[in-house]
Amino acid sequence: MLIILYEEILSKLKLSILNQNLFLNRNCKGYIIPHLYQNETECKDLPEPTWKCTICNTTEFKNKINNILKKIAYDYSMTDKQDTISCEIFLNHYDQNQLLHPNHYFLNDVRFKLAQLYGQTIQNDIQSLTDAELERKIKLCRQSLEFATILYPAEWRIQGVLKFELHASIAEDSRRKMINCEISADILKSKLLESKKWLQETILCLKYEPDALPEGKIAKQAEKNLIDLESLLMRLYFQI
């Protein structure tokens, strides 16, 4: 039990640390973090605090890192979190070029917002998403949920919202493939069972939220969806 708890603490600590770090050396897969000095002598030998790569030990001065982070923070603040295109531009620039660690706060926050935006705008519900957009939404939900489960285990509102979004996305993906005859009955059942699991966990996370809050409304919708999904699974079971 102690070993498991220790590993869990290390996992959360590592994720928390990576939440702040950068990649700077394109030839190295390490990430650069604030360097902790072993003693006062080592600290005095350097003109200013440094950041250090976890693999190749390349160092950069604090001022340079701060300037980079200020530029990224500005771009993050200018990103419209209610617009899918704006969010994708930010992610494409800072996630694809690997300047920020994949678990950096800026990237995770934009992913979380984007996972909700796809299929939730006035002009664009989940059934009107393209197949590529739906696949993107599923990926974003899984990424954000993995991060939130480890780093924010007590934030059940965040987890509940993400689990409901993931349920809805998987259910819609299954519906499309069933209509187009692109999926076998066994795989369809497997996908619907996964969708059911996320529904059940949504209810567990949000069942005590007031009905007046968005999370409370999601919980009520999840309960209704669960009844419908169980009925569908029962019909599918007898067909198989």
What does this structure look like?
There is one protein chain. Helices cover 65% and strands 6% of the residues. By secondary structure, the chain is mostly helical. Among the domains are: 28-78, no CATH class; 155-240, Methane Monooxygenase Hydroxylase, Chain G, domain 1, CATH 1.20.58. It has a 3-stranded antiparallel β-sheet. β2 (50-53) and β3 (59-61) form a beta hairpin. α5 (105-117) packs across α6 (131-151), α6 (131-151) runs antiparallel to α7 (156-179) and α7 (156-179) runs antiparallel to α8 (185-206). The chain is elongated, with a radius of gyration of 22 Å. The two termini are 42 Å apart. The relative contact order is 0.08.
Gist of the model:
The protein is mostly helical and 240 residues long. It has helices at 2-18, 40-44, 62-78, 84-94, 105-117, 131-151, 156-179, 185-206, 214-239; strands at residues 32-34, 50-53, 59-61, 120-121, 124-125. Helix content is 65%, strand content 6%.
CATH topology of the domain at 155-240: Methane Monooxygenase Hydroxylase, Chain G, domain 1
CATH architecture of the domain at 155-240: Up-down Bundle
Any idea of the CATH class of the domain at 155-240?
Mainly Alpha
Helix/strand/pairing category: mainly alpha
Task: Record the SSE blueprint.
Layout: H1 2-18, E1 32-34, H2 40-44, E2 50-53, E3 59-61, H3 62-78, H4 84-94, H5 105-117, E4 120-121, E5 124-125, H6 131-151, H7 156-179, H8 185-206, H9 214-239
Antiparallel strand pairs: 1-2, 2-3, 4-5
